[in-house]
């Protein structure tokens, strides 16, 4: 009986370990690092590794996140990414960073990161943030954040930040992928290239086709 229990426990632990491995977003490392070789023609899930003998300290370094992004655009918000495209040493490490600048009433519009959870902290100003759960609930979780507050956007969920303050706002966010990806909802639906048929979007949104076309014209 005792041996049977041990066996069952072992089987349960093994199942847990396996399911954890299968759901890890970026692969585990099999070496100290795998600095991206951006010149390689080899295609893998991620980027191939540079020869470790050619790796230099700059492969793990980026400078410039103290510089405010230019928020002069329709949304009044801009994201400065620091992911594997900027730091090759992030390849396979499952993490990256962004700086987000917001003009007064500036918006980081509803979007998702298909490959990552995000943890954000406000460095300057005041943001209204929110995310929406998946179907069928589509429940909105929203909060007003001030300097020093931290908020989490779970992986894959649609989320946004809006600057409620009269001054500029700045946030820093870490993401659980070297390459989180961004799908901005409005751009994907109304700004697809070539366009999704107006009839299809009109039916999806339950509005007139000319309403859809006037939105599509903004992209
Ligand atoms: C910011 O972007 C706007 C619009 O593209 C441009 O006109 C302006 O010169 C930029 N400002 C700076 C400081 O780069």
From TrEMBL:
Supply the PROSITE patterns for this chain.
GERMIN (PS00725), PROKAR_LIPOPROTEIN (PS51257)
Q: Which GO terms describe its cellular component?
A: apoplast
SUPFAM superfamilies attached to this UniProt entry: RmlC-like cupins
**Keyword annotations from UniProtKB, A to Z:** Apoplast, Cell wall, Disulfide bond, Manganese, Metal-binding, Oxidoreductase, Secreted, Signal
Q: Name one Pfam family in it.
A: Cupin_1
Where it sits in the cell: the answer is: Secreted, Cell wall; Secreted, Extracellular space, Apoplast
Q: Which reaction does it catalyse?
A: oxalate + O2 + 2 H(+) = H2O2 + 2 CO2
The residues the entry assigns to the signal sequence are: 1-24
- The Cupin type-1 domain extends over 63-213
- Keyword Signal among UniProt keywords: yes
> What are this entry's molecular-function GO terms?
manganese ion binding; oxalate oxidase activity
Tell me the residue numbers annotated for binding Mn(2+).
Answer: 111, 113, 118, 159
Q: Does the keyword Metal-binding apply?
A: yes
Q: Which InterPro entries match?
A: Cupin_1, Germin, Germin_Mn-BS, RmlC-like_jellyroll, RmlC_Cupin_sf
> In which residues is oxalate bound?
108, 113, 118
- S-S pairs: 34-49
Q: Which domain of life is it from?
A: Eukaryota
PANTHER family in UniProt: GERMIN-LIKE PROTEIN SUBFAMILY 3 MEMBER 3
Record-stated family: Belongs to the germin family.
Instruction: Return the protein name.
Output: Germin-like protein
Species name: Lolium multiflorum
